[in-house]
Write a structure and sequence with these properties.
Blueprint: H1 9-26, H2 31-52, H3 59-88, E1 94-96, H4 105-109, H5 121-124, H6 156-164, E2 179-181, H7 186-191, H8 199-214, H9 217-222, E3 227-231, E4 262-265, E5 275-277, H10 289-301, E6 306-312, H11 322-332, E7 337-341, H12 352-359, E8 361-366, H13 376-382, E9 386-389, E10 412-413, H14 416-421, H15 425-430, H16 435-447, H17 467-494
Parallel strand pairs: 1-2, 2-3, 3-4, 4-5, 6-7, 6-8, 8-9, 9-10
Length: 500
Amino acid sequence: MLPSENTSPRKTFKKLRNSFHLIKSQVGFHHCKWFFLIILIQISFILFLAGTSTPPSPPQQQQQQQNFQISKPQQNKHQKQSKQREKYCEYGRVYVYDLPTKFNKDLLNNCHDLDPWSSRCNAVSNGGLGPKATGLDSIIPKNLVSAWYWTDMYSAEVIYHERMLNYKCRTLNPTNATAFYIPFYSGLAIGKILWFTTAKERDRPSEEMLQWVKDQPYWKQNNGSDHFLMLGRLTWAFRRKTDDDSDWGTSFLRMPLMKNVLRLSIEKFPWDDLEVSVPYPTAFHPQFEYEIKQWQDLVRSRNRSSHFCFVGAVRKKIKNDFREVLMNYCKNETSSCKVVDCSVAHCYDGAPAILEAFLDSDFCLQPKGDGYTRRSQFDCMLAGSIPVYFWEDSFKTQYEWHLPLQYEDYSVYMDHKEVRNDTSIVRKVLDKFSKEDVRKMREILINVMPKYLYARSNQGLGSSNDAFDIAIEEVLKRFKQQREQQQISEKTIKKGSPVY
């Protein structure tokens, strides 16, 4: 029989047994000889099996087989991960410019100099989230305290940069990018030069940044039309119309090199198609989805003692200040309105007194802030209190990516002129809403809560998109559609057909 042929284990055992009986019948044994005979039989059995088994594969063939067995599951794993990335990044990927540090990191390192009156180091700490919140133990569950920070209303540009560096759809290869992110801290850069400086001085940081970006090869491809940035301050700080030193702000958004660049802003200019508003950062920064659910349950079950509230300070330098109108009205409506007077109380962003007032009230009065919007309106919604607006520009053209378009389903509008003439309108209008109406409106705010929050994890919230995820996905979607339309136009031109 050839060595390469296979032998049945049963036949092999039968032959071995017959050999054993033959030896046993012919030899007389005492204990010592029988012991050595058994050893001899065992060795013969091993050698016999070795001679009838299939010869091993050459080392190279064995290695190839082993490699194949190992690499196959790895290949499946990589394919699965690639498919997941394609699913998450169906609108493309973002390339983050490595700007000279004077446009971002150096500003953080010199945080004591970012404001003429006080240090901004707390505001920009913890990746823009600010210092850990304190004094909330009696208001929120103990296990949620770690999710609260004293976040500054103008810190979004730092938050966005931190998140972008770890974004799931970031690419390090600019040739694969759909969008190009410019991590310029525009708000911090002008913070200390908005006052007591010339117009030329205020414009210098923005001009220097644009000079650097315009020389990049990927800017030149489309003249910046696939580039975007985040504005940490309200849009009005970047729209100076003249070069007069007495005119406030910078002319950043009016500079020729910015004419094609998309910008995210905590308050947009209503008539600018290249500007999109994103939520102000609040004090609540969950890391896990269960933290949001726990907070939603608390907001939903909260017993509220006040019909409505007003949080703010009177601006004495402003003639006929509407905030003063609301403040005086609320102080006379003590049975219905809860007041937090920020000229008396310490009203830093997210302070315990503010949070408690919103949690205790069905409605919150939201006049204009420095612009048409306020950070307060997001603090209000976060606590399940229904915002009451007095200017249409406070809500109509703002936050369309993050809040439902049917504003009347979760907010109330009263014209400020009518309220100024008769403040009793406030209570008359709010009294028309039944408890069930209020519950339904609050439920909408609770359900969309993840969309206007910023997670404290660099990886986001997992399966839920937070405010950052939504904003960047919408930017990518916009640029992808823009590129597809451009490609269609180019093909049409090549074919010689007219383009309408």
